């Protein structure tokens, strides 16, 4: 047996570098792993889980690993399963939100809600907030719904009750309104037997603090705890971690303070930087070997991040080799910037797949010009982080039906059902039903029945028909499969028939999406059956709500082929062979609102962008930028100077000589003697191509160019703006 354990140990450690091995071999007590970008942190976490179970005989169900996205959690589960097979099934690997959901599911009675409680997404949040705005008569010219929701979400991330929120911010403008809104919002959520995403963690921590005997159960259940991306934790996530590990102190956190870029949504970099204060006996391990990028790219990142003072010192290096120098180019304006990037893409597109090339920018508004120039040059692209499947209106409509059948106290879902498709049930009727439900503590199916019996409606035909459907679906929900239930509801609700009345392209797309949703439920059900699990409607809805969280950006990588366009915040966790990092100007990057009080996070944002690049990195800035109808002259970002890039600025084939005009660049025509067959030329609209033929028709010189996008075009030579491309 001893020899077998030694063989397993050797197997788990053989492909790890010395720092990774040190982390994996750690047994008990706290440990902080500073994991630099691309340093193999997931490998360390999964190999440590395997080592604990197979070599040290730790019970699999005593291990808890927590990360931030469903994609990361699924990848972790899969890797652990590859290492130790069936043992992996008993290890708890979850996101923070799914962990909190498990705690609430197991203890829902303490919160006095139905076991079939709903989880509200941002759309349902806004719908509920609108009603509260109306009830409290809040002036929308002074305060917006989005602003108030953001404030109370951040309040719960900071673990502040309405009263504590009021005390902490009593000096702020509109605090009375914020306090009233916060109180009523929570009251209405509980009335609907619902939680939102911020609630999941807030209520879980509150429950554990108020019920020490339940906290002890979880402390005894999970004796070995690992937290991934610790630099991104907010205060309530920090509290949850501290509570579970308080007694045994077997906590391992993994993260990189240099990649902490989410303070705007509550992340606290001090959680990772103060770990040694929380656990003075903690072991510190640094993972500095990068397995993603070349040294030239990493050296640039290292030079930049050293200017941050609030960090733990580390320096990335790679065994891949030096690679190519990062390239900086100065552009006249944003059109020139986009043109140069397209030009570079044409030069390298035969070396890399288009989906392995990314363009990063600081704000979404910057994408418009890139989209325009890519379209003009017929280069396919994908906007990363655009509308996702479960965010589409028709899918949210179907989910409202399922949410209500699962939880008939959920008024937001009830109201959405009534309106989609329209059923001839107006606002006054809805108000009457809601009054009956709230005054008598009834669910909305019962409230409908009572209202009809009490003859509260002049014409109850539509309501009676709707009630009949609701009662039928309510009876079916525990008798037929999920897939059959969804299919029945879609068919009987009249949703598809409503869209079929006007078969325009948008409605055809909606019908296709509805059918795809039905298939997704069937697939989900079959997947659960293959794992010997039966799933209820309630569990399905609660699980699917976690997949539609707004924080799940990095799970939504498009399968479409094309250049990937995204903000720097969306780029976290991704990697590309080629990266174009754009808009390095004061006021853009660093952003004008962060220069004074958050410059270090802006620097970390650039660092994240740089370290996404595997082989080639291009950085650009413009001399002037058109914003809000005005031309603004720009200064190069301070980060360029910090990286020493301004000293080695590279001009690309004299492209800076191009003069921008309203819709693109002004090219000169080429003299006849410079037009040669089989040489390369660049056309403003069609991009790069090879001159294939020269003809003379009626004394006019006609040229034929075959472009790299597959098109072949004929032009009048003396009227066609071209630029000759010289070999490099």
User: Distance between termini?
Assistant: 63 Å
- Structural classification: alpha/beta
Mean pLDDT metric: 88
List low-confidence stretches.
550-558, 650-668
Strand content: 15-25%
Largest beta-sheet details: 6 strands, parallel
Shape label: globular
Radius of gyration: 29 Å
**DSSP, total strands:** 25
Please give the structural blueprint.
Blueprint lengths: L1 H12 L4 H8 L5 E5 L5 H14 L8 E5 L2 H15 L7 E4 H11 L11 E3 L1 H15 L8 H13 L4 H7 L6 H17 L2 E3 H14 L1 H10 L2 E4 L7 H11 L5 E5 L14 H4 L1 H4 L4 E5 L1 E2 L4 H11 L11 E2 L8 E5 L2 H15 L8 E5 L5 H10 L4 E3 L9 H14 L4 H9 L7 H14 L3 H10 L7 H16 L5 H12 L1 H6 L4 H26 L6 H11 L15 E5 H4 L4 E6 L17 H12 L2 E10 L1 E4 L2 E4 L4 H5 L16 E3 L2 E3 L13 E4 L3 E11 L2 E8 L4 E5 L5 E3 L4
Parallel strand pairs: 1-7, 1-8, 2-3, 2-6, 4-5, 6-7, 9-10, 11-16, 12-14, 12-15, 13-14, 15-16
Antiparallel strand pairs: 17-18, 19-20, 21-22, 21-25, 22-23, 23-24
Helix pairs in contact: 1-3, 2-3, 3-4, 5-10, 6-9, 7-10, 8-9, 10-11, 10-12, 15-28, 16-17, 18-19, 18-25, 20-21, 21-22, 23-25
